[in-house]
Design brief:
- This protein is mostly helical.
- The chain has six helices and no strands.
- It has one domain: nmb1532 protein domain like (Four Helix Bundle (Hemerythrin (Met), subunit A), Up-down Bundle), CATH 1.20.120.520.
- Bound molecules: fe (ii) ion (FE2) (2 copies).
- One fe (ii) ion binds next to α3, α4 and α5.
- The site of one fe (ii) ion has 6 residues, from α3, α4 and α5.
Length: 195
């Protein structure tokens, strides 16, 4: 069992950088960390922590594109991409984004940011089937072609640049505009989506 590294005191935004090759070694490099218990009560920290897990997923996609393979890690990646990753897009589009549209001020200019993020979510959803197909092929022992590697790498890059915008721009605005009452509503919505 690998210790979780998701910090309890999540920074207030930014700090986005890819996980470098070799930064996590051995079996740990294939782990997408579990979410700390109770983090959902701080919904913006919860989103930030999910982003950290997505960075881990992106790093695993790059490792696979580089030719590395760990079956348990690949299976966990499929589970993450079809589970928490998909759930997270819904958390943002069904709960966080509408709340930001309601509470942000015109000078925040969130409308264009949110439109772009929603477009990127659609691209993720369209690309996901291909990515899952590539990973499942590899799990079943079929060799990778060049296209498969490109598919994984492109998806990983897409995740990383999306996270940069959400962590670097959107979450800092959310921390200013959403007070304790709004965050409590957000947390409740996230909990209900997981019942
Ligand atoms: Fe996100
Ligand atoms: Fe997003």
């Amino acid at each position: 069992m690998v210790a979780a590294h998701i910090p309890d005191d999540v920074p207030s935004g930014g700090g986005e950088r890819p996980i470098e090759p070799g930064e996590r070694r051995g079996a740990a490099a294939w782990v997408i960390e579990a979410m700390p218990a109770g983090m959902i009560d701080s919904p913006l920290d919860f989103i930030f922590a999910e982003h950290h897990r997505q960075r881990e997923a992106a790093a695993i996609l790059v490792m696979m594109a580089d030719g590395e393979f760990d079956e348990a890690g690949a299976r966990a990646l499929v589970e993450f991409l079809t589970g928490d990753f998909a759930l997270h897009i819904g958390d943002e589009e069904l709960a966080l984004f509408p709340m930001l549209r309601e509470y942000c001020l015109p000078e925040d200019k969130v409308d264009r940011i949110l439109e772009r993020l929603e477009d990127e979510h659609r691209e993720d959803e369209h690309g996901l089937d291909d990515v899952l197909g590539v990973i499942r092929d590899r799990i079943e022992g079929r060799p990778f072609g060049g296209n498969a590697k490109r598919t994984l790498r492109r998806f990983a890059e897409h995740i990383s640049q999306h996270l940069a915008l959400e962590n670097g721009v959107l979450l800092p605005i959310a921390r200013v505009r959403l007070g304790p009452r709004e965050q409590a509503i957000l947390a409740q919505t996230f909990r209900e989506r997981r019942l």
